[in-house]
Amino acid sequence: MKNIIVASTSTVHGSGYLAYILDELTSFYKDTEEILFIPYARPGGITHEEYTNAAAKAFEAIGKKARGIHEFENPVKAIADAEGIFTGGGNTFLLVSQLYKHEVMQPLRDAIFDGTPYLGTSAGSNICGLTMQTTNDMPIIYPPSFKTLGVIPFNINPHYLDPIEGSTHMGETRETRIKEFHKFNTLPVVGIREGSWLRVKGDQIVLEGPHSARIFEQGKTPYELPTDSEVQFV
After folding, report:
1. pLDDT tens digits, residue range 162-187?
2. 102 an active-site residue?
3. What are phi and psi of 26, to 5 degrees?
4. I need a labelling partner for 21 at 20 to 30 A (CA). Which of 54, 135, 170, 211 fits?
């Protein structure tokens, strides 16, 4: 049974890395001693080692160890043997290209469907959807495919931002960009605000955290999904 947390972010304003969600992670990883960390998204271009150290420090607070997938000679086996997995945020284009390069996209999908607890934040959440096409990231590298894990039946837009009333910014809002996506694609999109997450248990997907989510479906007016509600599409 799938056991997933799809979180908008790893860090909310004014708190440390993963601090806002550590209570949830304590129960989520209760049967896990060591977490396999996938640092491929490399926010700001930091090294895999630096990124892994940041994740490991956060997990120490709940008595867990974290080890980067880059430390293993065989990344496919590392995923198959993992007790729990965490993919951090950064650049989704880079993350997806590296998952394909190391031939771990399908093994990661298989592990999730087999019930390995999986946490994704930001880019690590983007890849839970059917494609990465609703990422907010700059295309710094060209992945071989936009197809991602498909462990949830829609796409994610993490760090979802509402239009700022009175703003003079002339660029596209998140809502405008997702409407552009729906001119060419039929997949629903869930916009997750900072500090909230989707909790996936089997086929049930529930929004948790302090904020509602913004739901986009092709040809329909966007609407709000209250927290503690199940995500369902007809």
Report:
1. 877 777 766 689 999 999 999 999 99
2. no
3. -60, -45
4. 135
Residue 137 falls in the annotated catalytic set: yes
CA dihedral of 142, 96, 137, 34, whole degrees rounded to 10: -150
From the candidates 70, 102, 125, 137, give the one annotated as an active-site residue: 137
- Strand, coil or helix: 206: strand
SS3 annotation, 31-94: CCCEEEEECCCCHHHCCHHHHHHHHHHHHHCCCCEEEEHHHCCCHHHHHHHCCEEEECCCCHHH
pLDDT of residue 44: 92
Read off the amino acid at residue 78: A
Q: Which domains does the chain have, with CATH numbers?
A: 3-161+189-213 (3.40.50.880)
pTM score, two decimals? 0.96
Give the C-alpha separation, 153 to 151, whole Å. 7
